[in-house]
Design a protein that fits this description.
The protein has one domain (11-131): Oxidized Rhodanese, domain 1 (3-Layer(aba) Sandwich), CATH 3.40.250. The protein has seven helices and five strands, in the order H-H-E-H-E-H-E-H-E-H-E-H. It has helices at 2-9, 17-22, 27-39, 52-57, 76-81, 97-109, 120-126, and strands spanning 24-25, 44-48, 63-65, 86-90, 113-117. It has a five-stranded parallel sheet, sandwiched between helices. The longest helix has 13 residues, at 27-39. It is globular and about 40 Å long. It starts with a helix and ends in a 41-residue tail after the last helix.
């Protein structure tokens, strides 16, 4: 079971959920770092931990798609990531495991300051902030993506499944 966790989602021995929570930043700080990264692209990396398809559908401006499974300790990707002073990771929403797994792996394996924007694309869109395609063009407001938990048939915060619509 532990090996499956390590292989599939990038759980890193020595780093815990508390480490991820301690790295969390809120929207105002994330927005400031996104702006700062525009002028310092070699110092600050905005890392979108979602799938390549989700990334292609629209991402926070200036983001690079980085998956936890590609940031293994012996990978060229990790060497490349280690060159940034600050890496800010985000995913789909606070419940998605992909961003949390990447944060744990980076905290364990890079000298960079690693931060986690827990609101993810869901909160970014809630505030009507722009998403862009791979060429930097603003994309139309996509339909809200289901969180990783919702796509597995559960409603966040419940064990019973999708909510019944109110009448």
């Amino acid at each position: 079971m532990v090996l499956a966790c390590l292989a599939l989602v990038g759980c890193t021995p020595g780093k815990t959920e508390n480490d991820v929570l301690n790295a969390q930043i809120k929207l105002p700080q994330f927005r400031a770092l996104v702006e700062e990264a525009k002028g310092s692209p070699s110092r600050i990396l905005i890392a979108d931990a979602r799938t390549p398809d989700e990334f292609a559908a629209g991402t926070v401006p200036g983001s690079r798609n980085v998956r936890a499974e590609s940031a293994r300790p012996d990978s060229p990707e990790l060497v490349s990531l280690s060159k940034f002073e600050t890496i800010v990771v985000y995913g789909a929403d606070p419940r998605g495991p992909s961003a949390r797994a990447l944060v744990k792996r980076l905290l364990e394996s890079t000298p960079s300051r690693v931060l986690w924007y827990g609101g993810g694309v869901r909160e970014w869109r809630t505030f009507k902030l722009p998403l862009v395609d791979k060429d930097g063009n603003t994309v139309a407001e996509p339909a809200p993506a289901a969180s990783e938990e919702e796509s597995q048939g559960t409603t966040p915060g419940t064990e019973s499944g999708p909510e019944t619509p109110a009448r």
